[in-house]
Amino acid sequence: MGKECPAGAVPRASDEEEPVSAAQVPASIFRAYDIRGVVSETLDAEVARWIGRAVGSEAREQGVARLVVGRDGRHASAELAAAVAAGMTEAGCDAIDIGQAPTPVMYFATHELETGSGVAITGSHNPPAYNGMKVMVAGDTLSGAAITGLYERIRDGRLAEGSGQVVQRTDIVDRYIERITGDIRPARRLRVVVDAGNGVAGAVAPRLLEALGCEVEPLYCEVDGDFPNHHPDPAEPQNLAALIERVRASGADLGLAFDGDGDRLGVVDSAGKIIWPDRQLMLYARDVLRRRPGEPVVFDVKCSMHLRRVIEAAGGEPRMSRTGHSLIKATLQESGAPLAGEMSGHTFFADRWYGFDDGLYTGARLVELLAADGRPSAEVFAELPEGVATPELKVDIQEGEQGELMADLVAEGQRRFTDATIHTIDGIRVEWPDGWGLIRASNTTPVLVVRFEADDEAGLARIRAAFEALLGAVRPGLAIPG
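User: That's the sequence. What structure does it adopt?
Assistant: C-alpha cells below.
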C-alpha cells in the first residue's frame, strides 16, 4: 500500500502503485451539482473521509485553512460529517463542525466565520437511502469539472498532508436567526403554516418565523430521516397536498414548504393555491428593483415568459441562465445581480443577503413583503401575470446519449422554427409571441426535460404539437408524456 501512515490517517499510494482510492471511491457519485450516492453502497464513512481530504487539499491550494461542516437530519449524516471533518484535518485544515443545520445555515457560517469554504452533508430531496455533499471552496459552490476534480485528486493521489483539528460550534443557528431578524421586521403578524417534510429545516424554520413575529403552525417539522409523511420536495404538487389542506382549514395567511435540506422553498397562498417559484420571483424582482433599478435579475430557462416581462416593466435587465443551482449562483456572481432564482425553488438574494440559495431566508423576505402589503396573499399573487403551463415532463432516454440527441434536436429546431426566437444556452427554448417550449437534457438523470407555456390552451396545444413533431423527426418512437 506504499508508505506507512499515522494511525487513522488516509493512506496514499506510492508512485509505483495504482492509487488505492481509485478502487475505493466510485466516480459515479460525483455529479453535476453535488456529490450523491446510496449509503453503504456507493457512499460510506471511508469514502466520505477521502472526499474530506480532497476538499481540504483543494482548499489549501487556494489558501484556505478552515472549512465549515454541517449536516442534515438523515440517519447517516452524523457519521459522514465526522468522516469528512477527519479527512479535512488529515489534509492540514481545521474543520468547524456546526452540527445539524440546513444547508443555507452552513453557507451562512462560511460568511459569518470568514472561511468562504465548507461542506454540507445532505441528501437534499432524494429518497432516504441517499446522502451526499454540497461543497464550497473559496467562495465558489463547486459544480461540473470542479466536482469531478475532487475525484481525480483522490484517484491520482494529489492529496495534501497535515494535522488540523476539529472545532465544535453550537451557536451558528442562533446567529443566523439573529442576523435575519435584525434586518427583517414584518409590519404585521402573519399566520404561517410550515411544512418541512421532516427535513432539517423543521428544526429552524419555525423558530425563525416565530422570531419574526409570525404565528406558526408546524406541519411535519420533526426531523426524521425516513420522511414518513411525504417526500421533502416542494417542486412536486403531491407533496404540497397536506399543506394546502391545512392552510385552507386554518385560514392561514401563507403556507411555506421546504425541501430536505432547506435551500428550496415552496409557497401556498391564502386560498390554497400553489405559487410556483417563477411567479414568486416576479414579486421579489419588483421589490428589489424598486431600490436597485437597471440591475440584472437572473432566472433559468424553465421559467415563465411573463417573468422576463415583469423584470423589464420593473426597470430591470432579464438574464436567462442554464438550469442548476450552482450555475445560477455563478451567473449571479459574474453579473453582480441582486437576485436570481430557478424553477426548482432555489432563490438567491444578494440584496441585503449573501447571494446563496436559502429557502428559509426567502420565506422571511416573502413574509416581509406580504405583511407590508396588507391584503390577503391570494390577492397579492393574483396580480402577477400567469399563463397556462405544463409541469416538467420527462422523456426517458439511454444513459450517455443526452449530448448527441440534444445536438440533433437543436439543429433540427433551428431549421424548423424560423418564425420564433430560439435560445440554446441549455437545450433549446423556442419562444413565440403567445408562448414557448423547452427541451433540455437533465444533468442528473438520463431524461429529457420538456416544458410548455402559452397564453391559452389552444396556444399550449399548438406548441406541444410542434415539439412532438420535433422529437419525432429526430428520434422516432420517443414520446412526450402526459
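Residues 457-474 form the longest helix (18 residues).
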